[in-house]
Amino acid sequence: MLSMRSLAVALLLACVAPVAIAQTAKAVIEQQMTPEEFKAAGLDKLSADELAHLNTWLGRTLEVQTARTAADTKQQIEKADRGFFHFNSDEPIVSRISGDFRGFGKHKSYTLDNGQVWEQTDDALLPGIRLTNPEVRIKPGMVGNVWYMAVSHYNTRAQVKRVK
Q1: How many angstroms separate the most distant Cα atoms in the chain?
Q2: In the chain, where are the structural domains located?
Q3: Which residues of 63-84 are buried (b: 16+ CB within 10 A; e: fewer)?
Q4: Which among 89, 80, 72, 95 has a CA at the least distance from the CA of 18?
Q5: Full-model pTM
Q6: Which of 18, 94, 98, 158 fits a disulfide with 104 by CB distance 3.0 to 4.6 angstroms?
Q7: Among 49, 68, 60, 51, which residue's Cα sits nearest to residue 25?
Q8: Distance (Å, rounded) from C-alpha 109 to C-alpha 120?
Q9: pLDDT tens for residues 18-58?
Q10: Rounded distance, CA 10 to CA 23, Å?
């Protein structure tokens, strides 16, 4: 389980790294290459105006790619750690319980096909149920980092917390 500190570091890197890379991109190409590399690439034959256009294009391209990578990284972090944290999304987590489901019960663990493991924290019961690989929806509560699991075709919800 990711700690709050690990998540904070990951999100910070996802936000700060693009700025650092963009600042590097704004440096002129002739400062990023050795004189030998610059000459071997044929860049010494460019006029000052052509070199300025190349530097502008490279900077813009790196900024776009960096922003795209940062957004993708943030999305991957949010997807992988959803349930541990809310991330301001009301979309339910939809998956299936791996194996047999025998109803709700306090402290029961539910392993989902997506690899997540949830533990029930309240006293909700759903007795007499025997299902194999049922679909579940886990929705965030209105306040705090509270989550509720419901099994398809049943109205009973159990309060759960993600443990893996």
Answers
A1: 81
A2: 4-81, 93-162
A3: beebeeebeebeeebbeebbbb
A4: 72
A5: 0.50
A6: 158
A7: 60
A8: 7
A9: 445 444 444 578 888 888 988 888 988 988 898 888 988 98
A10: 20
